[in-house]
Amino acid sequence: xxxxxxxxxxxxxxxxxxxxxxxxxxxxxxxxxxxxxxxxxxxxxxxxxxxxxxxxxxxxxxxxxxxxxxxxxxxxxxxxxxxxxxxxxxxxxxxxxxxxxxxxxxxxxxxxxxxxxxxxxxxxxxxxxxxxxxxxxxxxxxxxxxxxxxxxxxxxxxxxxxxxxxxxxxxxxxxxxxxxxxxxxxxxxxxxxxxxxxxxxxxxxxxxxxxxxxxxxxxxxxxxxxxxxxxxxxxxxxxxxxxxxxxxxxxxxxxxxxxxxxxxxxxxxxxxxxxxxxxxxxxxxxxxxxxxxxxxxxxxxxxxxxxxxxxxxxxxxxxxx
Amino acid sequence: xxxxxxxxxxxxxxxxxxxxxxxxxxxxxxxxxxxxxxxxxxxxxxxxxxxxxxxxxxxxxxxxxxxxxxxxxxxxxxxxxxxxxxxxxxxxxxxxxxxxxxxxxxxxxxxxxxxxxxxxxxxxxxxxxxxxxxxxxxxxxxxxxxxxxxxxxxxxxxxxxxxxxxxxxxxxxxxxxxx
Lengths: 321, 179
What we know:
heterodimer, A: Arc Repressor Mutant, subunit A, 3 domains, four-stranded mixed beta sheet, 11 helices, B: mainly alpha, Rna Polymerase Sigma Factor, Chain: A, Arc Repressor Mutant, subunit A, 2 domains, 8 helices, globular
């Protein structure tokens, strides 16, 4: 086959455009003039037009296996599964750093303290999972409620929770026992260990609380050492623990890095009993904190369903405010 | 709530585009099961990214981009196996009964056309199918293939030339009006 004349080679792209119906009027005019004089290109144009016609047929022809019903049903179920796992999260400024709040379809899934700057720490990324998406709009309202809580303008966070990010059944039990601590109450790590039936597992309880996926919401700040010392909180954020407890009316002594709950200024109940006392009632002050729950206010104790002790009558002889 | 609205909107996206995206994947893979898997993966990926998609985006072209990328990964993974499957799929197509001579000729030409398209290099084949079967704009095809609009047009035209040459003597000149 002899090579095409250069004029035919040059016009070929426009010839293809004309056959495809994509050419503008100027190109169409050039092609029309050329094919009027060139038999080869006239035939080429006819061939390309025939090809376009075949492709039109192919486009409209039914495809074998073109039934999307089953695939669509599978997709719906996989999307539902993905949605239930997916976490939308926002990162917001917070006293002593930043806070990340994540929610899934089931409820609030994550409240995590973050350092002031930098990317998300590896353990937070792991908790978020690979399907997390940033969604500040969906979490902004939660942040506002948390801020109200921190400022003492809100005592309850009535949020549906997604508790699927527990590391183990043990952690779940620890966090459930912690979640049962009322607003304004404190108990000890040993006390939580005793409540879940493993009194010697004090350190594992502390570890389980360290990895609390829902800070503040599951109030691990209400768990303290048996000496009354605040011990630790979210790494080195013990000042934040002090602030949260102070907002809830828990009385503390000491300063800056060695805050301690002031047992002598707290209403006291023996865990499991249904009365609360002043701390000087009977031998309470000499009892280990592992068996006690302390309340900053009478209102807090009574809101938790406790009645004033009939011996020490904290209702008649309240502690000085 | 924002989330719920986004999810409802995504339902509408699935409703509007799933069948076409699956058909596109069926055309490029020639296997119903691959088209099922890849179309599901396309929409799962799209769902994850949907919230970040700027308002007013061309959702259809965006879905084609995701599907094209998944398709290309699939081809790389499948390699020669894919071509064997494609050939088998063609051979297994049953003949439609009671075809007239004209239909037989047209069908043979069409089958030849399909075979030629399958033999094209990947980018040309994808560009050609997106343009000629799904009528995407060259700019959209360029976005799907990570190339310029002009490169996308060049891929389609090169494919057209190859298809035209491969069908020499089999093109039903004058039959296009019957399509």
